[in-house]
Amino acid sequence: MVQNSATAPVNSSPTLSRRFSVAPMMDWTDRHCRHFLRLLSKHTLLYTEMVTTGALLNGDHERFLRYHQSEHPLALQLGGSTPSDLAACARMAQEHGYDEVNLNVGCPSDRVQNNMIGACLMGHPALVADCVKAMRDAVSIPVTVKHRIGINGRDSYEQLRDFVGQVHEAGCTSFTVHARIAILEGLSPKENREIPPLRYDVAAQLKADFEQLEIILNGGIKTLESCHEHLRTFDGVMLGREAYHNPYLLAEVDQQLFNSTAPVISRAEALAQLRPYIAEHLASGGAMHHITRHILGLGTGFPGARKFRQLLSVDIHKSKDPLALLDQAGQLLEGR
């Protein structure tokens, strides 16, 4: 079932927990990717790609807000800086059944900066507070903020503490902290994920100073062992690129972090469960690579991984029977 109606149920997910989440990632965490990740973990909180208020208010909002019912718990991340626009989009999120709406205060790209979106908003804490208040006044679902620990020229701990304090006073109680500053000039978004050093100590100080707030750590986390370690300090962890490139890591999240007693799904089982979704997408006129591009990492870590990736990223474009090719790739996963 694809959810694309304004009559979608509100709070239709299991109990929302931010103990473990997958980050919003542009061009990656679309609805197909999220459906696949949900097969691996039932409890992980999933985020959409960032959607700008302009896209929702002036474009085809049904297309941007569309998702599969299985994706819950699911959060919509918004990009914007006009309180009334963000409030209107938050209402759309709630009407479409999203479990949370999140404001992006972390993206460093030039394109979003020019529209007063993303990390540049860290220099305007009062405006972010106004945005949060407007959204909170508009909806009953949680309103959260994802931000950096600073930006160039505004990177002291005192300024970070002031930012969180002002936004908290506006009603936000959950902050996801990417533990790097953002360099707004001279670095690409990719470089901004790698060059500024990780400062987990700064995020930990924030948690110590705001014990009453939910502080989620993001940035550089690659293993469940690291998740366990960080959860001693923080209320939750958010994984980004590692969850995408090595998605099978999610298969043990429910057991290790949510005390689930359900059996761990195998790689082959995950692909088999994805097959009907792919078949439905093909029947509606979609292309198989819209989905399979997100699952190439499922083969990470075993001898047949290279062949698995070749089948689903190269051979797939030449195949007259893509589902048969999918089954061939699935055979490589048997016993894995």
From TrEMBL:
Swiss-Prot/TrEMBL keywords: Flavoprotein, FMN, NADP, Oxidoreductase, RNA-binding, tRNA processing, tRNA-binding
Enzyme Commission number: 1.3.1.91
Gene3D superfamilies given in the database record: 1.20.120.1460, Aldolase class I (3.20.20.70)
Annotated active site: C107
Domain DUS-like FMN-binding: 22-327
InterPro entries, per the entry: Aldolase_TIM, DUS-like_FMN-bd, DUS_fam, DusA, tRNA_hU_synthase_CS
Site (Interacts with tRNA) location in chain: N104, K190, R193, R306, R309
PROSITE patterns in the cross-refs: UPF0034
Reaction catalyzed: 5,6-dihydrouridine(20) in tRNA + NAD(+) = uridine(20) in tRNA + NADH + H(+); 5,6-dihydrouridine(20) in tRNA + NADP(+) = uridine(20) in tRNA + NADPH + H(+); 5,6-dihydrouridine(20a) in tRNA + NADP(+) = uridine(20a) in tRNA + NADPH + H(+); 5,6-dihydrouridine(20a) in tRNA + NAD(+) = uridine(20a) in tRNA + NADH + H(+)
Cofactor(s) annotated in UniProt: FMN
Gene Ontology terms for molecular function: tRNA-dihydrouridine20 synthase activity
Residues noted as binding FMN in the record, renumbered to the chain: P24, M25, M26, Q77, K146, H178, N218, G219, G220, G240, R241
Enzyme class name: oxidoreductase
Main function: Catalyzes the synthesis of 5,6-dihydrouridine (D), a modified base found in the D-loop of most tRNAs, via the reduction of the C5-C6 double bond in target uridines. Specifically modifies U20 and U20a in tRNAs.
Stored HAMAP family: DusA_subfam
Listed NCBIfam families: PRK11815.1, yjbN
Family membership noted in the UniProt record: Belongs to the Dus family. DusA subfamily.
Official protein name in the record: tRNA-dihydrouridine(20/20a) synthase
Species in which this protein is naturally found: Pseudomonas sessilinigenes
Source species taxonomy: Bacteria, Pseudomonadati, Pseudomonadota, Gammaproteobacteria, Pseudomonadales
